[in-house]
Amino acid sequence: MTERPAPFLGGRTLAPLPPRALSGFVLAFVAVLLIGFFTYRLLDARYAAAERITKTLESIEQLQAVLSTLKDAETGQRGYLLTGNEQYLTPYTAARSEFPGLMKSLRGSLTDAGQLRRLDIIEQLAVEKIAELGQTIDLQRAGDNNRALEVVRSDRGRAAMDRIRAGLGEMEKEERTQLANRQTEWQSAATFSSIVTSGGGVVLLLLISAAAMLTSRDHQQRETQIWMRTAQLGFGEQLQGDQRLDELGDKVLAYLARTVGAQVGSIYIAEGPDRFRRFAGYALAPESKIDVLQPGDGLVGQAAKEKRTLKVVEVPDGYLPVSSTIGRGTPRQIVVTPALTDGTVHAVIELGFFRQVHPADIELLDRLAEGLAVAVRSSKDRSRLEDLLAETQRQAEELQTQQEELRVNNEELEEQGQALKASQVQLENQQAELEQTNSQLEEQMQLLEHQKDRLAKSQTVLTEQAAELTRSNQYKSEFLANMSHELRTPLNSSLILAKLLADNKDGNLTPEQVRFAETISSAGNDLLVLINDILDLSKIEAGKFEVHAEPVPVARSVEELARSLRPLARQKGLSFKASVAPETAAQIETDATRLGQILKNLLSNAIKFTDKGEVTLRAEPAANGGVAFVVRDSGIGISSEQHEVIFEAFRQADGSTHRKYGGTGLGLSISRDLARLLGGDITVESAPGKGSTFTLTLPLAYSEPVEEEASASVMFTSTPLPAAENVEFIRPPARPSKPSHTSPPAATPDDDRERLSADSRLILVIEDDPRFAEILRDLAHERNFQCIVAPTANEGLAAALKYRPSAILLDMNLPDHSGLGVLDQLKRTPQTRHIPVHVASVADYSQEALERGAIGYALKPVQREQLVEVMQRLEAKFSQGLKRVLIVEDDARQRESMTLLLANDGVDITGVASATEALAQLRASTYDCMVMDLNLPDLSGYELLEQMADQEGVSFPPVIVYTGRSLTGDEEQRLRRYSRSIIIKDARSPERLLDEVTLFLHQVESTLPVESQRLLKVARARDLALEGRRILVVEDDVRNIFALSSVLEPKGAQIEVARNGREALDALDRATTPTGIGVDLVLMDIMMPEMDGLTAMREIRKRAEWKRLPIIALTAKAMKDDHDKCLAAGANDYIAKPLDVERLLSLIRVWMPK
Amino acid sequence: MPSTLFDIEMRLLVDAIFLKYHYDFRGYSEPSLKRRLTTAMSRFGCATLSQLQDKVLHDPSVFPPLLDYLTVQVSELFRDPSYFRALREKVIPLLRTYPSLKIWVAGCSTGEEVYSLAILLHEENLLSRTLIYATDINAHALEKAEAGVYDIDRIAGFTVNHRNAGGRSSLADFYSAAYGHAVFDKALKSHIVFSDHSLATDSVFAEVQLVSCRNVLIYFNRELQDRALGLFREALCRKGFLGLGSKESMRFSAHADDFDPVAETDRIYQRRDGR
């Protein structure tokens, strides 16, 4: 990317000048040299010519000087000759001395041979002349003037002179010719020289301008190069760094536009072989929407296809418009450059200019385009590399997680293997243990055999003793009964007689005699009371005391008692108050006579042992749900040690008491026994001097102890007695196990848990009343069951789990939990679910119990026959009695095939074709299960179900809907009210049908809480807070909807169901309209389809009119922040699933608008 | 009792996460958790777990990525094709007899399992009366699941699985591909409820006919496995079905007696009757 200056590249040296400039310079140099040389030569020639001219001129001068010298010499001679004056000889002498020199110089300056020859001639002539002159002079001097003159007259001198003159003239002429020649020569030399000079100048000028041109061009080129290089460098900088393509585009384009001065531009990048996508734009008009191009598409595509730069000069309007907020325009020229590298187009740059585009621009663009191409390619490569890297990283990560999974799987397997091993070891251990136990068992068995033998022996003895005891007891009772009878008969007559006497009807007795008779009568009465007491006691002890239970109005009995005892109290000066607490049950079911007897006894005692103060009788609700009759006095009181003693027969608190207050001491004992017989008890609270409080508690309903061996009872006739009419005396049973004394209530009767045999038929009795438990136990024994008795709910559940009895008899009122709870638990626990449970109780919870899966419900007091029946039903149930299935299907073939499918030993199938028949069947008998089609000829399936629910006397077995129709959500929900099991007919449906039917038959499945049962409950459980209130249940789970409505509807609430948030909003909308009935409270599930609860709540809270609507969120999430989320979304409160009904109800009560 | 320093730190970290974010990893299988945390440590540049704990407690933005590390998300469409074939052959015919269906995919991660089931049900013409609850503790994974967008290069594998699982239609009918991704049909999603639910802390929310919880229990220790199976048992209607991962066995669970195998090798069980 970086381009360094050339001279440094590889140390290579370059010419100092570009070759063209260099050759120019060399040419100029040579031209200058040539011109100089020529000029020099020409100058030289001219100098020579000039010199020769000068010489010629000099020669001419000298020739003239020679002539003049000769003339001077001639002149001097002539003067001398004429004058004889010596003085005139001076020029002659001078000429004579000068002449040789002159000649010499002349000779020197003459070059021409002709001239020299002429000069020689002249010199000779001159010498002759001079010599003639000298002769004359000499002649003169010698005074021979005449001769001198003669010589002169001889004309010799003159001729010489003429010849000289001619010679000289000739010479001069010659010289002048030469001069002219030389002058011409010089002239031509000068002309040539000037020609050469000017020519050279022109050449030089040309060369210089050429060189200048070259240099300027080079400079320009260099400048362009520098510009380009700078641009490239800058471009390189733009491209520097690892840039993603998309970042690169805009940067590069902006730079390009800035550098080449383009006003608008875009870059298309190659994506695949024939796709170009615009990935950068510069000042593009917003409507330039062409994003994707193919090679050949438009200019860009064309440039990409041709792989060369295209330049468009005449740009049509609207093409690649430039846009600003102020206006828009179309560039004048457009350049489209493909970015090529390795022959591949990686991108196409398109630029628009307002100015002319120079080739340099295009060149630069080409170069930069290449750079861009490289950058794009490397960026693509980089992206690909990054992608690959990311991919490998992802794969590595994935591999790691997969590895993790594998490892975890391995660990899991290992753990399972270890667990297997451990269980194997455990099994081995168990086996060893078993072996050991087996041997131990064998030993023990032997031991047991021995013990059994011994036991059998002692049992025989015991049985004999017991029989004896029973007999003697019987004798005692019989004796007592007989004796009292025998006593009463005479006493009766003596009493009647005494009474007659005391009445003194004849008036013949003295008052004293009357008093005696009264005393006899009174004493006899006392005796009678005593006898009755003894009789009662013996009856109670014998366990044969018949109770006539009937509804007894509490207030009235209290009032009656008070009325009868008030005179007695008044007699003793005591105040007597009787009252009934407001919450007390209005009436109880018990034996009114016995109740009166007990209370009378307690009150008489109270009055008897109280000397002053008051005696009160108050009826109030007892802790166990019955009624408590509280007799309170302010009498002498009883110390705590005596509390139990006073209830024992034949004893009183203090020996002296008897003497002071009289009485048999049997009253309390009898009262307590009676109370217990009535299912209640008597307790005492007292301290000496502080008065006493006797409390008689009785249950709301009396449960009758069962008489045994009624056929064997012996009836004694007796005179009617005031306190015990119609008493049946039943011979005590011969069974040794029958206790002759009643046990305290908490004690558990003996049962068979210690002597269970392996294959025993076992009945579990969960009953807190030991008497009833005993009766049941004995009944069980009688029917050849073993029996276990559990007095509390917890013990009962534990026993059920431990002993897995064949059947369970369950009381409803247990001390720790309700019997319903026990039933529920039993039915929820898989191990005990199958055990048939029969309920017996004083309270009528039959619906609840049957709903929860009890097979029957006996209301106390129960007749013995009833109990026998119960046992039989239980026996039938667990010994796989006949199950009855009702099939309601109009198609005969279907019905038949279903019958065949369900046919099984012990299953009795009745098939009917119409709803009417089905109803008739259900009215006539009970079924364990009903399978019905929805399409029936007379009524629809829904109608049938509704009628079953509505009509009295129609049993409602578990219903399985078996239909070929697919159901809508609403239909399904409607059916769910009656049937938990809906099967759509399909290939595998027979299997499921068989499954479901079997399920219903082989376990005591709780019947569904159908509408009729709900209606029953309504009366009992109406909750004022919920009565008539509308609750919107937003919940999509049928099971939960069902549970919620079965809790809320019996409380009088009206339920509307929405299955998701959207439906909830719609329902609220409907409810808010003027005709709507309104919604008082919303129960909102969180996890729902379409719109979840949180969103729904937020939507609800957005509406002003629903701001105050109470919403309780139902969430399966346990975390606090989930709850916070509910509250943040607008819930008033929340409750976690699984729902606790009590909590939910209290929440609803809290939030329900008052 | 934790023996090494790492174990101690791990327990503290897991407690810290529970207290701060209410995500309960205390019942997770220790060896796995250890490995995941070791990886996470190097990812977050922490030398010790205590440093990681410091980070997680004071920078809530660290928790979501850490959660991604703690919850392993490996899945594909119709993973273990034989499981889906077994569902198709042994479970679907029975599910067909219910008027409406609810299915719970517990630990749905990024949703592959959910879409597989939805496609299967669609092919069996049951989807219209089905509601699928897809739950997971990782909200981030749930978002992905709800988006239903997967890399296109995974689709090929999915297609093979789908065919092997006895697919009756072309997988391509259920997704549309663009820009390197494939997105699953909205029509499938309209039958799915995505929700945050923790098998460690939360309770049952609906009665369902099928629970599919595959390769989730292996990350739990025995107690948590039992809790989860208990939830499933409670959620299932009687004779409802439970599908587990290929290495997950019911045999040693406290609830082993509550289930009968339907397809033992494919780990499909059926709840025994009664409640």
Nutshell version of this structure?
Chain A has 1154 residues and is an alpha/beta fold. Chain A is 55% helix and 14% strand. Chains A and B meet through helix 8, helix 23, strand 25, helix 24 and helix 26 of A and helix 2 and strand 6 of B.
Determine the structural class of chain B based on helices, strands and strand pairing. Answer: alpha/beta
Portion in beta strands of chain A: 5-15%
Number of domains of chain A: 6
State the shape of chain B.
globular
CATH T-level topology of the largest domain in chain B:
Rossmann fold
Query: Strand count, sense and closure of the main sheet of chain A?
Result: 6 strands, antiparallel
- CA-atom Rg of chain B in angstroms: 19 Å
Write down the oligomeric state: heterodimer
CATH class of the largest domain in chain A: Mainly Alpha
Return the average pLDDT of chain B rounded to an integer: 88
* Count of DSSP-assigned helices of chain A: 30
Query: N-to-C SSE series of chain B?
Result: HHHHHEHEHEHEEHEEHEEE
